[in-house]
Automatic annotation (TrEMBL):
<dbReference type="Pfam" id="PF02896">
    <property type="entry name" value="PEP-utilizers_C"/>
</dbReference>
<dbReference type="InterPro" id="IPR015813">
    <property type="entry name" value="Pyrv/PenolPyrv_kinase-like_dom"/>
</dbReference>
<dbReference type="InterPro" id="IPR018274">
    <property type="entry name" value="PEP_util_AS"/>
</dbReference>
<dbReference type="Pfam" id="PF01326">
    <property type="entry name" value="PPDK_N"/>
</dbReference>
<protein>
    <recommendedName>
        <fullName>Pyruvate, phosphate dikinase</fullName>
        <ecNumber>2.7.9.1</ecNumber>
    </recommendedName>
</protein>
<dbReference type="InterPro" id="IPR036637">
    <property type="entry name" value="Phosphohistidine_dom_sf"/>
</dbReference>
<keyword id="KW-0418">Kinase</keyword>
<feature type="domain" description="PEP-utilising enzyme mobile">
    <location>
        <begin position="417"/>
        <end position="499"/>
    </location>
</feature>
<dbReference type="GO" id="GO:0050242">
    <property type="term" value="F:pyruvate, phosphate dikinase activity"/>
</dbReference>
<dbReference type="InterPro" id="IPR040442">
    <property type="entry name" value="Pyrv_kinase-like_dom_sf"/>
</dbReference>
<dbReference type="InterPro" id="IPR002192">
    <property type="entry name" value="PPDK_AMP/ATP-bd"/>
</dbReference>
<keyword id="KW-0547">Nucleotide-binding</keyword>
<feature type="domain" description="Pyruvate phosphate dikinase AMP/ATP-binding">
    <location>
        <begin position="57"/>
        <end position="284"/>
    </location>
</feature>
<dbReference type="InterPro" id="IPR010121">
    <property type="entry name" value="Pyruvate_phosphate_dikinase"/>
</dbReference>
<keyword id="KW-0460">Magnesium</keyword>
<dbReference type="Pfam" id="PF00391">
    <property type="entry name" value="PEP-utilizers"/>
</dbReference>
<keyword id="KW-0670">Pyruvate</keyword>
Length: 890
């Protein structure tokens, strides 16, 4: 096979083989854009090297062949003493990967060719500057010398001369510096800086190959789920020089504003500079628009090229370019990163320009971006005092008083204060404090730190790893650069989307996108926010094409109404347990303590009208749409007083000899119901089978509510009754028999046909494995993927996220918690086979999912692919699910 491709041979679709950078350099070359000639060594060559520890045998000859062709084109030879060709050696994998090796520029320079370069360019200073850059970059990235050693020598040279910036060093200074750099290399590596140009090139190529397997690169890949065996390509590109004086320079540009999506001239330019100088911030850059005044012909050409690239890639592109003595060169382009808001605006703009169609527009945005746009944000117009910047770990805008330990967080929040929990890093002991806080700020740890993982799981604002902020938990204060001290109780504001930390209260404004979904802002209005207009259009595209329906998890009329405004097509999960709390708790106690059938029936009789009233409201809010009501699921002890508290109360009372009879019985019951593993204990359908009359009462409440809506209100209730935690069809059969009897009674009494359906959750492995049998007795399945994940993995969701998940994420065992994104290979494959088996028994079986996964983008795609009918998620997630269902179908 062929291991080397000239830039003229590749194209943008060959990213697997040529890497992103190489494929796009080839694409630009073939578009006739001014790209310095060069060639790309393929990822295949890298793979052979990584597998065998040796470059493929044919590689050297192929490289020689392409190098000779390049030399012929350029009319000079690599490193030739009197007229040297210089090249850059640039890494470039299929996916851009921070933490991989940097590019080495000016390969081919040596003690011999440096004067040739000086003559060629007529510029002595430039030649020595290029040489010192080569030794510095090569020393650091290829030979592994500590880069600080070079930086220090450079700083010292500037100091000695009394100048501030590198351009003020002259040829003699730089020549001197080259000598020092060579000494550093010799001292640190035990060998001289290689003078032979081809050896320089080969060593650099090998270093790029090796960089694929650095620890940082491996970790990054595991976390981003990039396969470890792709390898990287290497680009050899003839050098052009931006450091040849004021008529030269280097810059970066975007074809539109990556922050707003607006078309215009965005970028930075730096005169007399090379390579990374622009982004390294060594001197102040000028805005790209200023290039027009500096070099009009190059500027005009660049604008022309930017238009060509946008039309060609049909998307926002970012660009790296260099001007050498008035001649423009393109060094890189790719489809550029953008903010969430810009993604939506650009997608609709491109549709309007006729560059892409609606289906493609849907692929240009995603649910994570939409979710980001739905968080409240800080008022952009507010005056703020920023005191630091952290890693944006979990979005949102949080304001509160600084507290430095979890105990204080809980105490203050109980007394009604809003607090921000500030820690160096968090650990499982901080959980209560994190729950109590508005937001979390840490000075250590990255996106997978404990704080970040747990906060994201809770949907709580979090910024982490603010290294410039010094947290002193003993003295209860935080010190920011400039000596600003934040004491306990001082108000701080943190922005989980940007990572910025402010002193004082920054006013928060609701997201315009939420205002729009809530119906308080209309996309059609003339003055409507551009972003809202774009979101409105994209949502319309998604709704038009999606096959999956989207329902809400909602337990009360208020949530149901909001869900409906957000586009819910029904309720996929109404939990009934909250209907047993508050003042009704006492009735539940009576139910549990009942000694006789009569006592029990009386307690149930009291609960019935209350439950019924809840359902009437819910059916009204969702009139005409399906409402799946799940019968009682959690273990009963959750409705009883805490065992310790009650024991203490009883013990105290006994010591005073006035123990209350009821408390004693309650305590007995609590002891009796106490379980080591409540999650695997007496709950769900098991309760219904053990407590006579409980499920019958709930079914009656549902049926009577439906009858009332139908008769009295002429409504259209569409209730579906769902049985939780079924493991075998026999359980379901017994419950169904009783439910059907109750429903028939209600129907007779009210003279209506309620068309109630009865189905089950599939949330135990055994249910999934016997889904074919269970379907005999079920009108629908709803996959409870939270419990299914717990039971398939043997993870307790309430415990593991805060304990060992951080370690698992750091080690790359999974890139994301299986409670967040469905584990396709394990849990997902059970869902798939259960869905197939269920439909084999009963082709019209309705299939849905009601775990947290129902609102997770990646999971939604999976459920679409498996062929479910709907996903159900929390009201706030509904727009995300609609969008992703559309993207999955488009
Ligand atoms: P990265 O992937 O880090 O962006 P690049 O390979 O794009 O690394 O190189 C970084 C910078 O080095 C480029 O933006 C460009 O300014 C400069 N550079 C790379 N190759 C050349 C070249 N052949 N001539 C001039 N400058 C180059
Ligand atoms: Mg680059
Ligand atoms: Mg469950």
């Amino acid at each position: 096979s062929k291991f080397v491709y000239d830039f003229t041979e590749g194209n943008k679709d060959l990213k697997d083989l040529l890497g992103g950078k190489g494929a796009n350099l080839a694409e630009m070359t073939n578009l006739g854009l001014p790209v310095p000639p060069g060639f790309t060594i393929t990822t295949e060559a890298c793979k052979v090297y990584l597998d065998s520890g040796q470059e493929p045998a044919a590689l050297r000859a192929e490289v020689t062949e392409h190098l000779e062709a390049l030399e012929a084109t350029m009319g000079k030879k690599l490193g030739q003493a009197d007229n040297p060709l210089l090249v850059s050696v640039r890494s470039g994998a299929k996916f851009s990967m921070p933490g991989m090796m940097d590019t080495v520029l000016n390969i081919g320079l040596s003690d011999a060719s440096v004067s040739g370069l000086a003559t060629q360019a007529g510029d002595e200073r430039f030649a020595w500057d290029s040489y010192r850059r080569l030794i510095q970059m090569f020393g650091k990235t290829v030979l592994g010398v500590d880069g600080d050693l070079f930086e220090e020598a450079l700083e010292e040279a500037k100091r000695a001369k009394g100048v501030r910036v590198d351009v003020d060093l002259d040829a003699a200074d730089l020549k001197n510096l080259v000598g020092q750099f060579k000494d550093i290399v010799a001292k640190e590596t035990g060998r001289d800086f290689p003078q032979e140009p081809r050896e320089q090139m080969d060593l650099a190529v090998r270093a790029v190959f090796d960089s694929w397997n650095t620890d940082r690169a491996k970790l990054y890949r595991r976390q981003e789920r990039i396969p470890g065996d792709l390898g990287t390509a290497v680009n050899i590109c003839s050098m052009v020089f931006g450091n040849l004086g004021p008529d030269s320079g280097t810059g970066v540009a975007f074809t539109r504003d990556p922050a707003s999506g607006q078309q215009g001239v965005y970028g930075d330019y730096l005169q007399n500079a090379q390579g990374e100088d622009v982004v390294a911030g060594i001197r102040n850059t000028v805005p790209l628009a200023d290039l027009e005044g500096i070099d009009k012909p190059s500027y005009d050409e660049l604008m022309q090229i930017m238009e060509t690239l946008e039309t060609h890639y049909k998307d926002l592109c970012d660009i790296e370019f260099t001007i050498e003595r008035g001649k423009l060169w393109m060094l890189q382009t790719r489809v550029g990163k953008r903010t969430a808001g810009a993604a939506f605006r650009i997608a609709t703009q491109l549709v309007d320009q006729g560059l892409i169609d609606e289906a493609e527009a849907l692929q240009r945005v995603n649910g994570a971006q939409l979710a980001q746009l739905m968080f409240p944000r800080f008022d952009e117009n507010a005056k703020t005092q920023q005191i630091g910047r952290a890693i944006a770990a979990s979005p949102g805008a949080a304001v509160g008083k600084a507290v430095f330990d979890s105990y204080t967080a809980v105490k203050w929040s109980r007394s009604g204060e809003k607090v921000i929990l500030i820690r160096r890093e968090t650990n499982p002991d901080d959980l209560n404090g994190m729950i109590a806080a508005e937001g979390i700020l840490t000075s250590r740890g990255g996106k997978t730190s404990h704080a970040a993982v747990v906060a994201r799981g809770m949907g709580k604002t979090c910024v982490c790893g603010a290294e410039e902020l010094e947290v002193d938990t003993k003295r209860r204060c935080l010190t920011a650069p400039g000596g600003i001290v934040v004491e306990e109780g001082d108000v701080v504001s943190i922005d989980g989307s940007s990572g910025k930390v402010y002193l004082g209260e920054v006013p928060v404004v609701p997201s315009p996108v939420v205002e729009y979904f809530e119906g308080r802002m209309h996309a059609g209005a003339d003055d409507a926010d551009e972003l809202v207009k774009a979101v409105h259009r994209i949502m319309a595209y998604a709704d038009r094409v999606r096959r999956l329906r989207v329902r809400a998890n909602a337990d009360n009329a208020e949530d149901a109404a909001r869900a409906r405004r957000f586009g819910a097509q029904g309720i996929g999960l109404c939990r009934t347990e909250h209907m047993f709390l508050g003042e009704r708790r006492e009735m539940v106690e009576r139910l549990i303590l009942a000694d006789t059938d009569a006592d029990r029936e009386a307690a149930l009789g009291d609960l019935l009208p209350l439950q019924k009233a809840d359902f009437v409201e819910l059916f009204e809010a969702m009139d005409g749409l399906p409402v799946t009501v799940r019968l009682l699921d959690p273990p009963l002890h959750e409705f009883l007083p805490d065992i310790t508290e009650l024991s203490v109360r009883v013990a105290l009372a006994e010591s005073r000899k006035d123990a209350n009879e009821n408390d004693l019985r309650l305590l007995q019951a609590v002891h009796k119901l106490h379980e080591q593993n409540p999650m695997l204990g007496l709950r769900g359908v098991r309760l219904g089978l053990v407590i006579p009359g409980l499920f019958a009462m709930q079914v009656r409440a549902i049926a009577e509510a439906a009858a009332e809506r139908k008769n009295a209100a002429k409504g259209d209730p569409r209730a579906e009754i769902m049985i939780p935690l079924v493991g075998t069809v026999q359980e379901l059969e017994i419950v169904r028999e009783e439910a059907e009897r109750v429903i028939a009674e209600v129907e007779r009494a009210h003279g209506v046909d309620l068309k109630l359906t009865l189905g089950t959750m599939i949330e135990l492995p055994r249910a999934a494995l016997t889904a074919g049998q269970i379907a005999e007795s079920a009108d629908f399945f709803s996959f409870g993927t939270n419990d299914l994940t717990q039971t398939v993995w043997g993870f307790s969701r309430d415990d593991v996220e805060a304990s060992f998940f951080t370690a698992y994420l750091e080690k790359g065992i999974f890139g994301v918690s299986p409670f967040e994104t469905i584990d396709k290979d394990g849990v997902g494959s059970l869902v798939r086979s259960a869905a197939d088996a269920g439909r084999a028994t009963r082709p019209d079986l309705k299939l849905g999912v009601c775990g947290e996964h129902g609102g997770d983008p990646e999971s939604v795609h999976f459920f679409h692919e498996v062929g479910l009918d709907y996903v159900s998620c929390s009201p706030f997630r509904i727009p995300v699910a609609r969008l992703e269902a559309g993207r999955a179908a488009a």
